[in-house]
Amino acid sequence: MTQYDTLRPVQWKDGQLRLLDQRRLPGAEQWLMIDAVDAVRDAIFTMVVRGAPAIGCTAAYGMAIATRKAPDDPTLFAEKIAADAQTLKDARPTAVNLAWAVDRVAGVIRARLGDGVDSAREAALAEAHAITEEDVQFCKDMGAHSLPFIPDGARLLTHCNAGALATGGYGTALGVARAAAEAGKLKMVYADETRPRQQGARLTAWELHHDGIPVTLISDTVAGSLMVRGEIDLVVVGSDRIAANGDVANKIGTYQVAILAAYHEIPFYVAAPLSTVDFETPTGDGIPIEERDGDEVAIIDGTRIVPEGVPCRNPAFDVTPHTLVKAIFTDKGVALAPFVESLAKLRDL
Ligand code: MRU
Predict the structure, then answer these.
(1) Spatial distance between the Cα atoms of 139 and 238, rounded to a whole number of angstroms
(2) In principle, which of 58, 114, 139, 158 could form an S-S bond with 170, CB 3.0–4.6 Å?
(3) 3-state DSSP assignment of residue 31
(4) How many other CB atoms sit within 10 Å of the CB of residue 209?
(5) How many CB atoms lie within 10 A of CB 6?
(6) How many angstroms is it from 112 CA to the middle of ligand 1?
(7) What's the CA gap between 197 and 51, in Å, rounded?
(8) How far apart, in Å, are the Cα atoms of 161 and each of 12, 165, 175, 197?
(9) For residues 226 and 232, is the Cβ–Cβ distance under 8 A?
(10) CA–CA distance, 330 with 339 (Å, rounded to integer)
(11) Which residue lies with its CA nearest to atom 15 of ligand 1?
């Protein structure tokens, strides 16, 4: 482990799921111990844990917990697992890694059920561990694949938190930043604060600072002014779901950053594992966009900043069309346009 690789937000400890409560950062480093499927679902929905790959790892452990709580009778066991799988999948709709991880563990459970429920239980936990460990390695692989695209002295802008906190560890977009830092190529990460939940201010700034990587926070309104002054060399973001044609769903506000980057001729890159690519969804129009409570916009630290009675829209994600994306860094290599072909080729490697 390097000095740039110290955080693991989703852990299994003493027979329970251990999650870093990201709602409390940066003020407190509090870990929650979880031992029930409904509590896993709530942790995902309330964003104790967030970020597409981290949600996937968490849901995988949720399935392992489901097997431990399900009855010993194989038929009742299978029925309970199917119901719990749906509960976990319904926690948040946009990140496809969630359903992907649940289905992957469910497949292993089905395959091992013939050997008995205890065998299925063992296999589910082993698969959750594998998904989490693989995710860290995939992030490192993405970082390595991105290096030829990173200029020396890079000043990298990112949006939201696509870091160790959003993955098994190391990060997707921030994995690119970590790899660049390890290679001596990184000058600065500019982190958008990312309204309304401020993942950039609270989480990206925290984890990069924690690992000694240079980071400067900007409010969401600043990106264009830095670009026009020539202070940003590249943009790298993560993704919650990439359609087969390369359209990219990511945290709300990503789309406007991509437009700004295109206008200023700054490359806009996406870093995501292939588990984030939804080959069943041809274009971004088919990606479900989570709408969250308007109070997340209206209330900051317990204080209402909007007059009572004024409605607030709070879509949590937007879709950046593939035409604005210069390249997608995946665990298996780099996809370039036309993405419909390059992504499918990487999947089939
Ligand atoms: O609502 P969040 O905080 O779960 O949104 C997270 C993002 O949008 C991330 O950029 C995305 O999940 C990629 S994480 C590696």
Answers:
(1) 11
(2) 139
(3) strand
(4) 14
(5) 14
(6) 33
(7) 13
(8) 23, 7, 11, 11
(9) yes
(10) 12
(11) 162
Indicate the CATH number of 10-140 among 2.40.10.340, 3.20.20.70, 3.90.1570.10, 1.20.120.420.
1.20.120.420
| Residue 240 appears among annotated catalytic residues | yes
DSSP labels for 54-87? HHHHHHHHHHHHHHHHS-SSHHHHHHHHHHHHHH
Q: pLDDT value at position 6?
A: 82
Residue extents of the structural domains in the chain: 10-140, 145-347
- Is the entire prediction scored with pTM above 0.90? yes
**Residues lining ligand 1, Cβ inside 6 A:** 50-53, 95, 160, 162, 166-167, 172, 199, 238-240, 250-251, 316
Residue type at position 128: A
Architecture of domain 145-347: 3-Layer(aba) Sandwich (3.40)
Which residues of the chain fall short of a pLDDT of 50? none
Q: How far apart are CA 343 and CA 349, in angstroms?
A: 10
The pLDDT value given to residue 16: 97
Tens digits of residue pLDDT in 246-256: 999 999 999 99
Catalytic residue among 240, 278, 318, 331: 240
Q: Which of 157, 161, 293 best tests ligand 1's pocket when mutated (most atoms within 8 Å of CB)?
A: 161
The tens digit of pLDDT for each residue in 166-219 reads 999 999 999 999 999 999 999 999 999 999 999 999 999 999 999 999 999 999
